[in-house]
Design goal:
Layout: E1 2-6, E2 20-24, H1 32-48, E3 51-58, H2 61-65, H3 78-86, E4 92-97, H4 100-103, H5 107-114, E5 120-126, E6 130-131, E7 137-138, H6 142-145, E8 151-155, H7 168-177, H8 184-187, E9 192-198, H9 203-206, E10 212-216, E11 226-234, E12 237-246, E13 259-264, E14 275-285, H10 293-314
Parallel strand pairs: 1-4, 2-3, 2-5, 3-4, 5-8
Antiparallel strand pairs: 6-7, 9-10, 9-14, 10-13, 11-12, 11-14, 12-13
Length: 322
């Protein structure tokens, strides 16, 4: 996949660009609804002998249009979003820098410059996609703005088994509540966070539970404090583990820095500086302060046992037959 970053006003020449089928959207999370939009574009492109393309935006529009200007946390920061989109078989990815000038484009200006002007012959987008100043352009107005230069497919609302709309908003709510075991039904995969193993206080090693202290990419939306059953990818290999997200209240009364520590099962390697991926499966319990180290060790042993039992259960195909 070829990635093209675009700043407004862009200087891409139409004659130098291939004819494409374009999937449009912000696509934070690249959840099953997003995947439906993107794979529809890929399949349409193949059937039409064209290239497939995705257009997304960076940063999130709320960062530019919101009043507080605070950085937003992402389900999939731009690097992971790029990776997931590439895995869907897309030929080209346009990442448009979202600025106030870009946001002020009228709907017709957006279509002229960023759809017609980029040799788009067909557009795929969700039913609720909007474009142009104040989001006044919609999939209903797009045929008018298309000037007969391209056609379109509108993907209707996608729902999960409970009838809820599959959306980035719902994914965020579940992450923020710690309901990570429900995410595969929305994402088609477990939620994951990438980071680097850094030097910690090594206290876990002294009590028999060495941990990898992971400094996550700060752009990720993290689950709430607590203990989780996780898998961690180290040097292309996956290991089961138990992860604590929190402030270690048993040892730190004043600590304000959130830590992510993974006790990796059956693992004894020095991995400082390694890039790792944490895949979140289930919340075991909330974080709490213990009266003494003995109580903490007993609880960690219980957490580890619960995580081991959980992974044994989900790896047993008979557990899904009841």
């Amino acid at each position: 996949m070829k990635t093209i970053r675009i700043s407004h006003p862009h200087n891409l020449l139409k004659e130098n660009l291939p004819d494409v089928v374009l999937a449009l959207g912000y696509f934070d999370g690249v959840h099953l609804g997003h995947q439906r939009v993107i794979t529809n574009a890929v399949e349409y492109a193949k059937a039409s002998g064209l290239q497939s393309a995705v257009m997304t935006f960076d940063p999130h529009p709320s960062v530019v249009l919101g009043k507080n200007k605070q950085a937003i946390k992402y389900i999939t920061p731009i690097e992971e979003k790029e990776y997931l989109i590439a895995n869907l078989g897309v030929n080209r990815l346009y990442i448009v820098e979202f600025t106030s000038d870009f946001a002020n484009l009228l709907p017709q200006e957006f279509v002229d410059q960023y759809i017609i002007g980029l040799n788009v012959k067909h557009v795929c987008a969700g039913f609720d996609f909007s474009y142009g100043k104040l989001g006044k352009g919609s999939m209903e107005t797009m045929p008018f703005h298309a000037r007969s230069q391209f056609t379109q497919t509108t993907i209707e609302k996608q729902t999960n088994s409970q009838g809820n709309k599959i959306s980035s908003t719902l994914v965020r709510e579940l992450i923020e509540k710690g309901d990570l075991d429900q995410l595969p039904l929305l994402l088609g995969r477990n939620y994951s966070v990438q980071g680097i193993v850094v030097d910690g206080d090594k206290r876990g090693r002294t009590i028999g539970f060495p941990t990898a202290n992971v400094k996550a990419n700060p752009d990720y939306l993290l689950p709430p404090t607590g203990v989780y059953a996780v898998k961690i990818k180290v040097k292309s290999l996956w290991f089961d583990g138990v992860c604590n997200v929190g402030y270690k209240p048993t040892f730190n009364n004043e600590q304000k820095v959130l830590s992510i520590e993974v006790h990796i099962f059956n693992f004894d390697q020095m991995i400082y500086g390694e890039e790792v991926t944490i895949q979140w499966f289930k919340r075991i319990r909330s974080e709490k302060k213990f009266e003494n180290i003995t109580s903490l060790i007993k609880q960690i042993e219980h957490d580890k046992e619960e995580a081991i039992n959980y992974f044994e259960k989900i790896s047993d195909p008979t557990c899904f037959l009841s």
